[in-house]
Amino acid sequence: MPPTSGVDFGVVELADGALIIKTDPVFIVPEYGWEKSAWFAVHILASDVAVSGSPPMYMAIDLNLPRAMKREEFELMWKGISSECERLGISIVAGHTGVYEGTGYPMLGGATVLSVAPRDGYVTTQMARPGDKVLITKGPAVEATGIFSSMFHGYLEKRYGADFADRAAEAFYQMSVVRDALTLAKIGLRSGVTSMHDATEYGVWGALWDIAEASKNGILVQEDALIVPDEIRAVLDSFSELTGIKADPFACISEGTLVATVRPEKEGQAIQILKEAGIRAWVIGEVTRGPVKVQLAHEGKVREVQRPAQDPFWPMFSKALQALGKRQTGCVEKAKQLTTFSRRKNGAR
Questions:
Q1: 0.70 exceeded by pTM
Q2: Does CATH place domain 125-348 in 3.90.650.10?
């Protein structure tokens, strides 16, 4: 399978199986803390393999470190990467480490994660079929909530209290779909779950458009099913008020939200198996026969939902850093890059 837009990984078909491959930057944000940042770096890669339905097994990693990084910081980061790979069953089989001029956070090199599956032991977003039910896990804006709550814990504590701020900060460790995807795969790949996708940039709406375009089908979403958990709503509302930027939760970056399509007869089993694993999930719509589009139904009326032109999280995040006086290092550089990229993309359209 050649590289394809809207598909999280590549596939090399072997004589007696399939090699699932994903390459991404090693994304390290010191402001998260070295251990948390290492955890997230591993899960960004592992999640994109897990949505195939096959568990991530091997990693090759290239670390291009900045001269400003201290040895003890590197050791904390590497221990975090190594221990999380071990916990997930990923063997680090090759790599390179060096210190170079001109490198800096948050991109410290790159890594490839691989899995070996039977020839029919994986799914892609191209495999979603008309009649499939579309479900999501956890809710929208999981990553936006996790980053806001980790970076601005004190602000949320002053606004909502310590208990709320602590609970919201736990969303950081929800920013992965490894467990979601591998749990759902148990209902049967292709016969039960037909596609899985991680809602990253542009959130749930972006993920739904990816599935529609890859499968060449439409998706009809029921507006009444677009539930936003209370803590996610509260966090986004507080930063919208702070920055003056209104954000649709379903357009916000959401690493950790699994968007999946399942055969209609497996809908109940899918929800139940995720519930038993402690993962909240619900159906938001269904796959329809083409043309390619995402539509929203409410009270008998249907309207088309455009692919988001910009993820609202990054401009909100950049303004929050300025408003709350946070040190502007790797995180804000990422915010600036993505805000600029989105604007250029808008202009191109």
A1: yes
A2: yes
